[in-house]
Amino acid sequence: MENPRFLRTSERKLKALGRAVSRKKRGSKNRKKAVAKLGRQHERIANRREDFLHRQSAELVGRAALLATEKLAIKNMTRRARGTVESPGKNGRRPNPKALCLTALRLGGTGILPVQRGTGPLDTG
Q1: Per-10-residue mean pLDDT, the chain, length 125
Q2: Which of 47, 52, 57, 115 sits a CA distance of 20 to 30 A from 8?
Q3: pLDDT at 125
Q4: Helices 29-63 and 11-23 meet at what angle, rounded to 10?
């Protein structure tokens, strides 16, 4: 599965829209319009990412009768993203590929198998 890099492909447009915002006078109606255009572009990128994940999860579910997922200690992995009181982290809303697959599985009627870390057939350690 190739990562499509939606932000990289839209960088030129984002740059132009950002410059357009910076050239407008603060508080003006034209600046508000330019900020709205920039926000819509960011929203388009987010929508493209989410659509990609939906398509990939649906394709995975369609190809496989059973999906195995690794049971990870995500709380330990996201400690820095949550941040602390002194320096709050960036904890934005991101689509969860595993949750999308689970949803597609429920709709498709196939099975899912949670696997504990270190117990899979390919695991050597």
Answers
A1: 88 97 97 97 94 86 75 67 62 64 68 65 51
A2: 57
A3: 45
A4: 160
- Burial, 118: exposed, middle or buried (Cβ in 10 Å; 0-12, 13-18, 19+)? exposed
Neighbouring-strand partners of residue 115: 70
Domain boundaries, the chain: 6-116
Tokens found for residue 3: 């990562």
Position 59 scores a pLDDT of: 85
> DSSP letter at 109?
T
Q: Which of 63, 61, 19 is nearest to 37 (CA)?
A: 19
Three-state SS sequence of 5-31: CHHHHCHHHHHHHHHHHHHCCCCCHHH
